[in-house]
Specification:
- This protein has two domains: 170 residues, Transcription factor LuxR-like, autoinducer-binding domain (Beta-Lactamase), CATH 3.30.450.80; 55 residues, Orthogonal Bundle (Arc Repressor Mutant, subunit A).
- It has ten helices and five strands; from the N terminus they run H-H-E-E-H-H-E-H-E-E-H-H-H-H-H.
- Helix 7 packs across helix 8.
- Helices cover 53% and strands 12% of the residues.
- The chain is globular and about 60 Å long.
- The chain has a five-stranded antiparallel sheet with strand order 2-1-5-4-3.
- The protein is α+β, with helices and mostly antiparallel strands and 245 residues long.
Length: 245
């Protein structure tokens, strides 16, 4: 599973970067579900300028039958994923929902009948201008497998959710240029600027090489850079790194 997930992560980020219209984004969502062995993947975006509160941006792999059924039953009014997810800062595990509530129990029961998985995660994204996104995934992993795979999903989808949300902003006519790097992203770029490899950065910072690569990928994305060298150059010009010794 871990090898497949790693491959899917790199492929997914590459394909998100190539998205140029709504159709190609829908295709990426389908690939995301297949690549990670998911039952469903869904992105909801709200607070996007030009869109009313009741008109979210949707990119989902759900069947049209489930979408219509969901609307007819007005499940959005009780769906804890929607009612809770957009208010949270941290990922939401669906196992934490109160299934003793008959309405919520009915919602998830019928969702399963329409092909959604019993296990799920929702990853919130909060933009700087009131825009918010929510990437939700579901699957039918056994409890033992879910305990392990959930950690892999959390690792990957917190990055994927941010990339999808930024792409949606661009599709909607917004072109944010994010210059704020996290302290870890700055540290990784700083050591790359000193000529260190990702492995050497990991050793110096006490992180795994995989984690360092994630920070570098995130930094490149924020700076619209095509490589680590390009990212270092942009970061230096923007005054985000210390000058070389």
């Amino acid at each position: 599973m871990s090898d497949i997930v790693g491959s899917s992560f790199n492929t997914t980020l590459s394909h998100i970067a190539d998205v140029s219209d709504r159709e190609s984004l829908d295709a990426v969502m389908e690939e995301l579900a297949v690549g990670y062995g998911l039952s469903s993947a869904a992105y909801f975006g709200i607070g996007l300028s030009g869109r009313s509160k009741g008109n979210p941006f949707l990119a989902v792999t759900y069947s049209s039958d489930w979408v219509e059924h969901y609307k007819e039953r007005r499940f959005v009014e009780i769906d804890p994923v929607i009612q809770t997810g957009f208010r949270r800062l941290l990922p939401l595990d669906w196992e934490g929902f109160d299934r003793t509530d008959e309405r919520i129990k009915t919602l998830f029961g019928e969702a399963t009948e329409f092909g959604l998985g019993k296990k799920g995660l929702s990853i919130p994204v909060h933009g700087r201008h009131g825009d918010r996104g929510l990437l939700s995934i579901s699957c039918d992993r056994a409890d033992r497998d879910w305990t392990h795979d959930k950690l892999l999903y959390l690792r990957d989808f917190q990055v994927v959710a941010t990339h999808i949300h930024d792409k949606v902003l661009r599709l909607e006519g917004h072109w944010p240029l994010e210059r704020h790097l996290s302290p870890r992203e700055v540290e990784c770029l700083q050591w790359i600027a000193e000529g260190k490899t990702a492995w050497e950065c990991a050793t110096i910072l006490g992180l795994s090489q995989h984690t360092v690569r994630y920070y570098l990928e995130s930094a490149r994305h924020k700076l619209n850079a095509t490589s680590n060298t390009h990212a270092v150059s942009i970061a230096h010009r923007a005054g985000l790194l210390l000058p070389p010794l």
